[in-house]
Specification:
With 204 residues, the chain is an alpha+beta fold. The chain contains six helices and nine strands, in the order H-E-E-E-H-H-E-H-E-H-E-E-E-H-E. The protein is globular.
């Protein structure tokens, strides 16, 4: 009986570990599905966009690194250029309630309008569930999922780690490069880079 109980405990632990692994985003594996609500209360599932390229952008409008890319309109131009090519762009905020970057209701709608965002949707992840699932560490932290549902890029928006807008034209934009490769039917040549920015303001 003792050995049977031990075997059951081991099996249960292995099952839990396998489940957690399956829900953790990794390059060249299927991107974990999720469901989050936008500022209007409408739910969006990643699986709703099956067959399309999807960009996940972790955002915090109060972060100076995010302000760099929105203040220069670099982020909005990227969003517009690729959503016009049928790419889905989801901005996700994992700031916990009370932390920097958290907004709700009319204030959130106003912040989105003020940002000039051209994203497909702005999604709220105040519990941090999706952020932690994808390992989002910074704002902005960028992820790209190909049309087959595979995570093919995770990392920074570009290669110059600064808050200076003047650095944007000099930087190599990893998102543009990866999306252009995917749209051309090629594989992403640089799948993992170092993200930079503010830390995601999780509850813990």
């Amino acid at each position: 009986m003792f050995m049977r109980n031990i075997k059951f405990v081991i099996f249960t632990l292995l099952l839990i570990a396998a489940t957690l692994t399956a829900q953790t985003a990794r390059i060249n594996t299927p991107a974990p599905d999720f469901e989050l609500k936008d500022n209007t209360g409408t739910s969006h599932k990643l699986s709703d966009f099956k067959g399309q390229i999807v960009v996940l952008e972790w955002v915090n409008y109060q972060c100076p690194f995010v302000k760099k890319h929105y203040g220069s309109e670099n982020m909005q131009k990227l969003q517009k250029a690729y959503t016009e090519k049928d790419v889905v762009w989801l901005s996700i905020c994992s700031s916990a309630e009370g932390n920097q970057g958290y907004f709700e209701g009319e204030e959130l709608t106003e912040q989105i309008k003020k940002s000039g965002s051209n994203a497909t949707a702005y999604l709220t992840d105040s519990q941090g569930t999706v952020g932690k699932m994808y390992g989002a560490k910074n704002t902005p932290h960028m992820f790209i999922i190909d049309s087959a549902g595979t995570l093919v890029y995770a990392g920074g928006i570009d290669d110059i780690r600064s808050t200076d807008q003047a650095d944007i034209p000099k930087a190599k934009n990893y998102i543009k490069s990866a999306l252009d490769e995917l749209l051309a039917g090629s594989k992403v040549s640089n799948q993992s880079t170092q993200p930079y920015g503010c830390s995601v303001k999780y509850a813990d």
